[in-house]
Amino acid sequence: MFHQYRITDRHELRLFQITDAEELFAVTDANRAYLRRWLPWVDGARSVADSRSYIDSTLQQFTENSGFVAAICYDEQIVGTIGFNEINWHSRIGYIGYWLAESHRGQGIATTSCRSIVECGFQILDLNRQVIACAVENQRSQAIPQRLGFSCEGVARQAEWLYDHFVDHQIYALLRSAATPP
Ligand SMILES: CC(C)(COP(=O)(O)OP(=O)(O)OC[C@H]1O[C@@H](n2cnc3c(N)ncnc32)[C@H](O)[C@@H]1OP(=O)(O)O)[C@@H](O)C(=O)NCCC(=O)NCCS
Question: Which terminus of the chain has a lower count of CB atoms within 10 Å, N or C?
Fold first, then answer.
């Protein structure tokens, strides 16, 4: 994958380092209520130590080549994460996940980060299919695969448990053949 990927002079994606734990925890904590609406892991991130173990797991995943999570940095500050939560190498499928601090929404930062991840997925990882699964009511998240030309393939019912209820997922996918026409 990559260690560092500059998108503009203000915006870059980079691998996490263990020393990012405090900053990652601070941005998670400041966005707790907002992130909790759509992400299942927020209640489990209760301390800097939890963020440190999360970073550790992303680095291990990178080393094992089983996925990839990058920090989204804006003006050198961590403002979110994006990457492949899972890769199925046999079928060459990447499953993309992301979140962005509320303070940085509405400027295209998540979409442009995702475009870079998708390009890397096809060009560097040689994936054939990339998938983004969004809760059916998460319109802001769905707008990202829509902007990037993903096809909406349907609804996976009760696909995720979010604290006290199930949510249905809208499944978006982009095939290599559609992204790079002959
Ligand atoms: C999902 C999430 C990342 C979307 O964030 P976002 O800020 O709406 O997405 P972007 O950063 O791509 O910004 C898009 C906005 O910037 C605008 N924009 C500006 N420049 C742009 C550009 N170059 N490219 C794309 N959009 C651009 C778009 O028109 C859009 O505006 P709108 O908000 O008025 O519709 C964010 O809401 C989030 O983290 N939510 C909580 C966690 C979550 O839901 N994660 C996903 C789980 S599946």
Answer: C
